[in-house]
């Protein structure tokens, strides 16, 4: 019987709003950057730039890191 595969998951970093970061950074287990998921909290700017809000961006980053 074959041994089960061990899945190694990545992680995502929360943005530091004090530094002006407006994205979640998804990294693999070797700390390579896989994706930047940008968001905007201000409704007017979000509509103009067609960005996600913070909750949507967090969900996508968590799903991406878990795969």
Question: Can you characterise this structure?
Answer:
The longest helix has 12 residues, at 54-65. The protein has helices spanning 43-49, 54-65, and strands at 11-13, 23-27, 33-38. It is α+β, with helices and mostly antiparallel strands. It is built from 2 helices and 3 strands; from the N terminus they run E-E-E-H-H. The protein starts with 10 loop residues before the first strand and ends with a helix. It has one domain.
Topology, please?
Elements: E1 11-13, E2 23-27, E3 33-38, H1 43-49, H2 54-65
Antiparallel strand pairs: 1-2, 2-3
Key attributes of the depicted protein:
alpha+beta; 3-stranded antiparallel sheet; 67 residues
What integer is the average pLDDT?
Answer: 80
Number of strands: 3
Helix content: 25-40%
Overall geometry comes to: elongated
Strand content: 15-25%
Q: What is the count of distinct domains? A: 1
- The gyration radius over C-alpha positions equals 15 Å
- The total count of helices amounts to 2
Tell me the major beta sheet.
3 strands, antiparallel
Low-confidence parts, pLDDT < 50 over ≥5 residues?
A: none
Strand arrangement, major sheet: 1-2-3
Spell out the helices and strands N to C: EEEHH
Derived from helix and strand composition plus strand pairing, the structural class reads alpha+beta
* Distance between the first and last residues' Cα: 25 Å
Summarize the structure.
The chain has 67 residues and is α+β, with helices and mostly antiparallel strands. The chain has helices at residues 43-49, 54-65; strands spanning 11-13, 23-27, 33-38.
């Amino acid at each position: 019987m074959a041994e089960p595969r061990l899945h190694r998951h990545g992680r995502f970093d929360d943005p530091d709003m004090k530094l002006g970061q407006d994205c979640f950074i998804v990294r693999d287990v070797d700390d390579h950057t896989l994706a930047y998921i940008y968001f905007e909290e201000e409704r007017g700017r979000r509509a103009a730039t067609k960005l996600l809000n913070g909750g949507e961006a967090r969900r996508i980053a968590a799903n991406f890191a878990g795969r």
